[in-house]
Amino acid sequence: MATLLAHIQIKPGKEAKWEAIMRDMVAETFGSEDGVVRYEYWKGQEPLSYYCLLSFKDKWAFYHHQMSDHHEGHDFADVLAGIRLEYIDPVEGAGGSLPPTSDPALPDDASEAMRTAQERFPLDIAAWWSGRA
Fold it and tell me: Are strands 2-10 and 80-87 parallel, antiparallel or unpaired?
């Protein structure tokens, strides 16, 4: 499983365009990807702040999502002021039935797209999660 919380800042005046992109991304993601578990966008309390909760069956499904035509086809540079991806891990019995985030090794026969995604979005498993359910 790969679960992330994206902390997103939007450029002033771009809220409507951003929200239209997000509606399209959610529709395309659920309509064309088998490995998505959760994909939700939220407005934050601070102006121009948004969040996205993304959860995929494994990191390969996440990488497929990141490299997909519908993800790569939007002009994110026009609307994004900043984004930080935070890998998260569910607390057993309190994490919405999501399995733990894991980081299997890249297989030797991985495609170039998967190798690129691994370089751009390496999973960051916090050391303090080890041994904690």
Answer: antiparallel
